[in-house]
Specification:
The structure holds 3 protein chains of 3 kinds. Chain B has one domain: 2-Layer Sandwich (Beta Polymerase, domain 2), CATH 3.30.460. In chain B, 23% of the residues lie in helices and 25% in strands. Chain B contains 4 helices and 7 strands. In chain B, a hairpin with a 4-residue loop joins strand 4 and strand 5. The chains are: A alpha+beta, B alpha/beta, C alpha/beta. At the A-B interface, helix 8, strand 6, strand 7, strand 8 and helix 14 of A face strand 3, strand 4 and helix 3 of B.
Chain lengths: 394, 186, 166
C-alpha cells in the first residue's frame, strides 16, 4: 500500500489569552517550524479598560484611584507619576516629609514588584519554591501599605499635594525591620537561582535584545539596562529629591534573560539602600501641602475660619483646579520609563491624560527576541520582559 | 538636567534655549509653533515636515534626540481648536538629558500622518493605538489595524464625541433562559 | 455547551438511603476539592496569587492545583475586569469546562463592572457566564477570596451540584 506523504508546513499555534504563563491576558500567535519560532505576533487589548477616557471624566483626585489599576504590580509608582504631573502644572510646594516618604514608598513598591516578577518568572520556569518565598516577603511589604492607607495594593496613597494620610506610627521601625531582613532573603533567592546550572542553561544567551534594537523600540527600565543602556530616570532626571540619595544604577551587557534577572536582583538591593537613606532623613511636619487650593485645610480650622470652610467646600465639590498647560512628566517605575502626558484646561478635570506605559513599548520587543528561538523558551522570555498587561492595554 | 540660562550682558534678555535656537535656525518658517514649556521644548510642524524634523533631532550632534519616548493623539474638539486633532510625539536625548515635544496638527477630514516606524520601530504599536482610539491613519505603517478594541468595533473611543453603542452585545448566555433551565431541573 | 452528563436529578429521585448518602458524599467531595482554572485577568489575579501563596495558602481548602486547562478544572474564578475583547473568550472557556462547574466573580469589576462604567468593560461577568458567588472588593483580600470559596463549598455540599449544570 502506498503511503501518502504530506507536505510540511509551519504550524500556527495560538498561545493565550488564557495561559498560566503569559503574565496576564496576552495572546501570542506563533508560527512554528517544528520547535523553532519563525514569527510571533502579540495580540493585546484583552484588558483594555478605557483609563484615558475615564481620566477625562473624573476630577484629579478621583483620577488617582484609577492610576493604581494600570500597572497593578506597582500601584504607588503610578500614583507618583500621576501626582508629579499634576503638581508640575499646579506649581505647588510639597512638604519634605511627603517627598521623602514618597521615595521610601516608591522603592518599597519597586521591591514588591520585583518580588512578584521573580516569583512568577521562577514559577513559570518550574522553580515553585521561589514563588512562595517571594510572596512571603511581599506580604510584609503589603502590610506596610495597609498600615499606611488601609489598602494592600490599590492604595491611592500618593496624591497631588502630598500623601493621603500621615504615615502611621511605627512606620520607620516596621520598614527598617523589612530592610534588615531582606538582604538575607535575597541571598536565599540567589542561592537557589543565580549559580543554578538549570537556570543558567535556560537563560544565558537566550532571548538576547541588542542595545540598538532596545533604543529603537523604546524599551526602558531593567530591560534596557540589561542590554547596556544607561537610562535611569531616577539618576538622570531626578524627581522627589533622588539626586540626594546614593545608589548605583545597575547596567548589564549581554541583554539575555539571565542579565535581566541579575539587573533586577541587584536593583532590589539598591532599593534597600535607598530606603535606608530615606528612613534616616524622614523629617516630621505636614504630610500634605499647605496650599488650600490643593489640599484640605485641617479640620480644626473649619470651625473658626470662613476662608478654610470655603476652601474645603470648593475642594470637596469641585476638586483641584489645574491651570491650563501641558506637561510630560517621567518617573522610573519598576518596568521602566512611566510617562504621564497631561493636558489641563483650567477646570477640575484633565482634558487629556495619556500614560506612556513602559510595558507597552517593551512588549514590542517580544517578536524580536523570540524569533529563531525555541518555543520552550518563550515563557522565560515573556517573564524576563516583565510586562503588566494592565498598563499595556490601559 | 536642565540647561542653565546664563545671564546676558543686558539683564533684560535671557539667552535662548539652545535646542530651540538650533531647530529654529534649520526649520525657520516651517515651524508652526516653537516654545519652551516647563523646560520642555515644544514644536509644531505640518505632517510633511515631520520626518525631516524627527530625523534632524535624532542625527544632529548637540541634539541627539535618539529615543522616541511616546506617541499619542489628542482631540481638541472641546477646546475649540482647529485643526481638530493632533499627534503628539515626545523625544528624549541621552546627551542633553531632556525631553521635547513635537505636535503635528491633523485635520478631521484628512486624518493621515506619515509613519515613523521606518525610523523608530517602537512607533508601531503607538501608531496603531492612535488609529484605534482616534481614527488617525498613518501612511506607510506596516500593519495599521486595531490594537486595543476588538477588530469589528465601530467608532474611535477617545474622540470627544464618541457615543458608546446603545445595545449591549448579545452574548450566547441568556439569563432568562438559564433561569428557566434551572427551574426545570429542580 | 459542555459535555452531556447524566442529570443528578435522576439520582435524587431514586429511593433509598444508600443513593442519598452516595450523592451527599460526592457533593462533599466536590466541594472540598475545587480546582480553579488559572483565570487571572487583572489586579484581582495578584490577590488570587497571594491567596495561593505562603501566607494564605488556599491549598488548605482543597484548591491544591490551579489547572491551566479548562477541561481539568471545575471552578472559574473570574478575577479582574472583563473587556469587550475578552468576553467571548470567557464564554468559550466556560463552555469548555466539564460539568459540574462553578464560577466565582472575584472583585468589583467582574461582579458589576466596578469603577469602570464605560465603553470598554463588560458591566459584570454575569452578563456572559452564570455566577455562583460574588466577592466584593477592589481587590478583595485573600481572606475575602477564601471566604467566598468557603461559601461556595458550603453551597455545593448542601444543595448539591446540579445548580452548576444547565
Amino acid at each position: 500500500m502506498a503511503v501518502k506523504t504530506f507536505e510540511e508546513q509551519n504550524l500556527i499555534l495560538n498561545m493565550g489569552p488564557q495561559h498560566p504563563s503569559t503574565h496576564g491576558v496576552l495572546r501570542l500567535v506563533l508560527e512554528l517550524d517544528g520547535e523553532t519560532v519563525v514569527s510571533c505576533k502579540p495580540v493585546i487589548g484583552y484588558l483594555h479598560t478605557g483609563f484615558e477616557k475615564m481620566f477625562e471624566q473624573k476630577t484629579y483626585w478621583q483620577g488617582v484611584t484609577y492610576t493604581d489599576r494600570m500597572d497593578y504590580l506597582a500601584p504607588m509608582s503610578n500614583n507618583l507619576g500621576y501626582s508629579l504631573a499634576v503638581e508640575k502644572l499646579l506649581e505647588v510646594e510639597i512638604p519634605p516629609r511627603a517627598t521623602v516618604a514618597r521615595v521610601v514608598l516608591a522603592e518599597l513598591t519597586r521591591l514588591a514588584s520585583h518580588l512578584v516578577w521573580l516569583g512568577t518568572q521562577a514559577m513559570d520556569m518550574g522553580a515553585m519554591s521561589v514563588f512562595l518565598y517571594c510572596f512571603r516577603e511581599r506580604e510584609r511589604i503589603l502590610d506596610i501599605f495597609e498600615a499606611c492607607s488601609g489598602q494592600r495594593m490599590m492604595t491611592s496613597y500618593i496624591r497631588p499635594g502630598g500623601l493621603a494620610y500621615d504615615l502611621p506610627n511605627g512606620f520607620a521601625e516596621e520598614v527598617k525591620a523589612i530592610v534588615d531582613v531582606m538582604p538575607a532573603r535575597i541571598d536565599e533567592y540567589e542561592a537557589l537561582l543565580t549559580k543554578n546550572n538549570i537556570w543558567r542553561d535556560r537563560t544565558v544567551g537566550v532571548g538576547v535584545l541588542k542595545l540598538e534594537d532596545a533604543i529603537s523600540l523604546g524599551v526602558t527600565g531593567p530591560n534596557l539596562r540589561a542590554s547596556g543602556g544607561t537610562l535611569d530616570v531616577r539618576r538622570d532626571f531626578p524627581y522627589c529629591g533622588y539626586e540626594e540619595y546614593d545608589f548605583q544604577v545597575v547596567v548589564g551587557e549581554r541583554g539575555d534573560i539571565y542579565e535581566r534577572y541579575v539587573v533586577r536582583i541587584r536593583e532590589m538591593r539598591e532599593s534597600l539602600k535607598i530606603i535606608l537613606q530615606g528612613l534616616k532623613r524622614l523629617p516630621g511636619g505636614p504630610h500634605v501641602t499647605t496650599d488650600r487650593k490643593v489640599a484640605f485645610p485641617p479640620r480644626s480650622e473649619l470651625a473658626t475660619s470662613m476662608e478654610a470652610l470655603i476652601h474645603h467646600f470648593k475642594l470637596a465639590t469641585e476638586g483641584i483646579r489645574v491651570p491650563a498647560g501641558e506637561v510630560y512628566s517621567v518617573i522610573e517605575s519598576p518596568r521602566g520609563e512611566l510617562g504621564v502626558y497631561l493636558v489641563a484646561d483650567g477646570s477640575a478635570k484633565a482634558y487629556r491624560l495619556h500614560v506612556r506605559a513602559p510595558s507597552f513599548a517593551t512588549l514590542q520587543a517580544l517578536p524580536l527576541i523570540a524569533k529563531g528561538g525555541l518555543v520552550a523558551d518563550l515563557v522565560a522570555m515573556i517573564g524576563s520582559l516583565d510586562p503588566v498587561l494592565g498598563e499595556v492595554d490601559r | 538636567m536642565s540647561d542653565q540660562t546664563t545671564v546676558a550682558e543686558q539683564p533684560a534678555a535671557p539667552e535662548k534655549d539652545p535646542v530651540l535656537a538650533q531647530v529654529e535656525e534649520r526649520f525657520g518658517e516651517k515651524l508652526l509653533e516653537s516654545s519652551v514649556v516647563l523646560d520642555q521644548p515644544t514644536f509644531a510642524v505640518r505632517r510633511e515636515d515631520l520626518i525631516a524634523l524627527a530625523t534632524f533631532l535624532r542625527d544632529t550632534a548637540g541634539l541627539q534626540f535618539v529615543r522616541l519616548s511616546d506617541l499619542c493623539g489628542i482631540d481638541y474638539l472641546d477646546l475649540g481648536k482647529t485643526p481638530r486633532f493632533a499627534v503628539i510625539y515626545h523625544f528624549h536625548s541621552f546627551q542633553l538629558n531632556r525631553w521635547l515635544r513635537v505636535r503635528v496638527p491633523v485635520d478631521e477630514d484628512d486624518a493621515v500622518v506619515p509613519t515613523l516606524t521606518n525610523e523608530w520601530s517602537g512607533a508601531n504599536w503607538f501608531e496603531r493605538e492612535v488609529y484605534d482610539l482616534f481614527g488617525i491613519e498613518f501612511s506607510g505603517h506596516p500593519d495599521l489595524t486595531r490594537i486595543l478594541m476588538p477588530d469589528e468595533w465601530e467608532g474611535h473611543p477617545l474622540r470627544k464625541d464618541f457615543q458608546p453603542p446603545k445595545e449591549p452585545h448579545e452574548w450566547s448566555f441568556n439569563p432568562e433562559e438559564w433561569q428557566k433551565a434551572v427551574q426545570r431541573g429542580s | 455547551m459542555g459535555l452531556a452528563m447524566p442529570s443528578d436529578a435522576q439520582s435524587h429521585q431514586k429511593d433509598g438511603a444508600p443513593a442519598m448518602l452516595f450523592t451527599k458524599l460526592t457533593d462533599w467531595g466536590r466541594s472540598q476539592s475545587l480546582w480553579p482554572m488559572t483565570f487571572g485577568l487583572a489586579c484581582c489575579a495578584i490577590e488570587m496569587m497571594g491567596s495561593a501563596a505562603s501566607r494564605y495558602d488556599v491549598a488548605r481548602f482543597g484548591s491544591e492545583l490551579f489547572r491551566a486547562s479548562p477541561r481539568q478544572s471545575d471552578l472559574m474564578i473570574v478575577s479582574g475586569r472583563v473587556s469587550q475583547k475578552m468576553a467571548p473568550v470567557v464564554r468559550h472557556l466556560y463552555d469548555q469546562m466539564p460539568h459540574p462547574k462553578w464560577v466565582i466573580a472575584m472583585g468589583d469589576c467582574s461582579s458589576c463592572g466596578g469603577m469602570f462604567n464605560n465603553y470598554a468593560i463588560i458591566q459584570g461577568v454575569d452578563k456572559v457566564v452564570p455566577v455562583d458567588v460574588y466577592i466584593p472588593g477592589c481587590p478583595p483580600r485573600p481572606e475575602a477570596l477564601i471566604d467566598g470559596i468557603m461559601k461556595l463549598q458550603k453551597r455545593i455540599a448542601a444543595k448539591g451540584s446540579k445548580e452548576g449544570e444547565q
